[in-house]
C-alpha cells in the first residue's frame, strides 16, 4: 500500500478516534485511494443519513466536504489539516437511497504558506454528479507539526518523517 494512502487513512482514523462529529456522521467512510493532492472516498448510504423527506441529508454532504477537504490537505503529508476559512456545496440531484454508494473525489487545488484550497465532487452509484463543493483552510500553523511527512512525488514512499505502518 502506498505511503500516502496509509498516512491519509491514519489521519481519518484520528478524526474517528476523536469520538466527535466524524464518528457520528460517517463512521463507514472509506478512503479508496490517496495520492499527493487527491483523495477518492466512498460512503454507503445508511437510513440514518437521510433527511425527513427520505433523501441523503445535505448537511451530511456539507460535512463530507469539510472532512474530505481536510483529507486532501493531509495527502501532502500534513498530520494536522488546519481550520476552515470558507466552505460551500452546490447540490445537483439526490444522492441515492440506503444501500447506494456515494463516491467523492477531493482535490487540493492550491496550497501556499497560509491557505489551502480544495474542491470536492460527489457522484452517485450511476456515476452522475450529485454535488460539488469547495473547502478553503488556514494551514499556517500546521506546516511544522512533528507528525508531518514528506512523500515521494507519486506518494509511494515517505522521504522524510516517520512512516508508522
TrEMBL record:
GO molecular function: fatty acyl-CoA hydrolase activity; isomerase activity
Protein name per the record: Thioesterase/thiol ester dehydrase-isomerase
InterPro entries (UniProt xref): ACOT13 (IPR039298), HotDog_dom_sf (IPR029069), PAAI_dom (IPR003736), Thioestr_dom (IPR006683)
Domain of life of the native organism: Eukaryota
Domain (Thioesterase) ranges: 54-130
Annotated family: Belongs to the thioesterase PaaI family.
Keyword set includes tRNA-binding: no
Keywords linked to the UniProt accession: Hydrolase, Isomerase
NCBIfam families tied to this protein: unchar_dom_1 (TIGR00369)
Annotated source species: Fistulina hepatica ATCC 64428
One Pfam family it belongs to: 4HBT
Amino acid at each position: 500500500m502506498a505511503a500516502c494512502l496509509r498516512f491519509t487513512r491514519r489521519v481519518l482514523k484520528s478524526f474517528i478516534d476523536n469520538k466527535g462529529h466524524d464518528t457520528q456522521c460517517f463512521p463507514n467512510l472509506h478512503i479508496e485511494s490517496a495520492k499527493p493532492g487527491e483523495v477518492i472516498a466512498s460512503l454507503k448510504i445508511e437510513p440514518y443519513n437521510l433527511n425527513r423527506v427520505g433523501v441523503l441529508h445535505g448537511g451530511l454532504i456539507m460535512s463530507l466536504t469539510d472532512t474530505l477537504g481536510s483529507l486532501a490537505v493531509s495527502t501532502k503529508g500534513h498530520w494536522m489539516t488546519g481550520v476552515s476559512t470558507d466552505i460551500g456545496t452546490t447540490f445537483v440531484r439526490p444522492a441515492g437511497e440506503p444501500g447506494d454508494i456515494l463516491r467523492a473525489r477531493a482535490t487540493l487545488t492550491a496550497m501556499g504558506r497560509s491557505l489551502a484550497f480544495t474542491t470536492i465532487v460527489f457522484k452517485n452509484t450511476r456515476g452522475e454528479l450529485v454535488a460539488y463543493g469547495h473547502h478553503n483552510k488556514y494551514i499556517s500553523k500546521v506546516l511544522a507539526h512533528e507528525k508531518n511527512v514528506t512523500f515521494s512525488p507519486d506518494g509511494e514512499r515517505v522521504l522524510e518523517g516517520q512512516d508508522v505502518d
